[in-house]
Amino acid sequence: MLVILFDSFSLWAQERIPGHYNSEIGRYEVENSIYQVKEFRRGLAPFRLHGDYGLIDTSGLIICEPKYEEIEGFMEGVSKVSTFDGSYRYYGFINRAGKEVVPVQYDYAENYIDRSLRFPKVLLVRKGNLYTGYNRQGQILIPEGYTLISHFRSHRALVVRDGKYGFLDTNWQEIIPCEYDQAKDFVFGVSMAKKDGLWGMMDANAGEVLAFIYDDISRFNYPNTLRVKRQGKYGLISDSGKVIIPAIYESFHNLREDKIAVMKEGQYGYINIQGQEVIPFVYEWAGNFSQGFAIAKKDGKWGHISQKGEILSPFIYDKTGDFNQGYAYVQKGDLYGRINLKGQLVIPVEYHGIGPFQNGVAKVTKRVDGIKLRGEVDTSGVLLIPCLYEEYLSFEEDLIPVRSGRLWGYANREWELVIPILYHRAFLFSEGRAQVILNGESFYINKQGQRLP
After folding, report:
1. φ, ψ of residue 315 in degrees (nearest 5)
2. Is there a contact between 259 and 274 (Cβ–Cβ < 8 Å)?
């Protein structure tokens, strides 16, 4: 009987690890503590001996001798494993019989999650920057040579070889040769590709459905349409290459609320998805519609327009924002206000900052001598908390801690200062007293600011 020496231990090279399987807890209880057996999954468990992992079954039979740094766990009959030579880690795969179906010689192997998403199934590994693909029996499906192998879309996988793009079919054959400068995954059976500096389209069966004539091409936010750029101008085409809107526009926004903001001859206007003009080209800039209105610029000033091209807020502002939850900001100089969906100025343009409304209240700031003073307003513009202090907490027992500079004091509900600002920290009142900190000393005061014993 062969004896193998492990430092000061002697281990008989038996086929089984001494012990027994406890089915109630799903663990193998070993008789010798030099073994560390992990949790069983589908009848197999990794065990560790002197830093290396092997595999046993529930009878303790050694399926795979301990020689791996890591055994990931089995999925569909294989597990990723790795070894470490002291400076570099190598990866491969073993089957449930403990046999290496992918040799442990690669720099990278796809993890459990990536393998579960890949269809058809393949064990993808990489050495240097080149990939190889194996099946679960250890046969090579994808010879070494690709620097990128994507997931399948429309039964085609995007690959890159020697810097050129192509596609594999589900038999891992290069059905579309790697001859394109760039390509994108197939969507609804159509891929966008670039060749000789220009873009076109291909169908999933490798036939080119659109000549390579465009400077750029991308998906548009309307079903089965693509935004294209040709000779510096934008338009729309269908997935089949049919022109929907000719490429005559200098700028071409996304479709929002049935309208597209476009620029022609330096002026912005709006068209519909059929290319018909719905709002005249009279603006220096125009944005997407939101809640029925869009920001626009005219004569150097900003305002808002309706879907009929009517003016909602006049063109008197230095900047305006999109509507969100029924309100949009307007700006003059460095001061901000808010308008509602009727164009009414509900918060005057007098604040240096306005936050979003939450439960009908927005935080506002005013800057005085470089100091930000904070307050709050409601949706009618009523000032709930005046901009008097740099920070405040909340009211308890009709008093609120407020901060100016680095020091704290207390104000009443009329926001009058009733306890001077002189503390380094101030806490809420409770049962007529509040904790404060002054010069590192903590003590309590009453509502008159008197120190309590």
Report:
1. -85, 75
2. no
d(CA 60, CA 312): 79
Give pLDDT, residue 225.
94
C-alpha–C-alpha distance, residues 321 and 318, integer Å: 11
Residues of the chain whose pLDDT is less than 70? 1-14, 206
E strand spans, 154-224 = 156-161, 164-168, 174-180, 182-183, 190-195, 198-203, 208-214, 216-219
Question: Cα–Cα distance between 91 and 102 in angstroms, integer?
Answer: 9
State pLDDT tens for residues 202-236.
988 767 778 899 999 999 999 999 999 999 999 99
Query: What b/e sequence results for 259-297 when a residue is b if at least 16 CB atoms lie within 10 Å of its CB, and e otherwise?
Result: bbbbbeeebbbbbeeebeeebebebbebbbbbeebbbbb
Question: Number of structural domains, the chain?
Answer: 1
pLDDT tens profile 247-273: 999 999 999 999 999 999 999 999 999
The Cα–Cα gap between 343 and 160 comes to 54
Domain containing 434: what range?
391-453
At residue 7, the pLDDT reads: 37
For residues 412 and 418, the answer to whether their CB atoms sit within 8 Å is yes
Q: What global pTM score does this model have?
A: 0.76
Strands 198-203, 208-214: parallel, antiparallel or unpaired by DSSP? antiparallel
Question: Residue 8 phi/psi, 5° resolution?
Answer: -90, 0
In-domain check, residue 244: no
Cα–Cα dist 320/341, whole Å: 13
In 284-382, beta strands by DSSP E = 285-286, 293-298, 301-306, 311-317, 319-320, 327-332, 335-340, 345-351, 353-354, 361-368, 371-378
| Token duo for residue 193 | 């590709």
| Residue 211 pLDDT | 85
Report the pLDDT value the prediction gives residue 189, as an integer from 0 to 100.
87
pLDDT at 206: 64
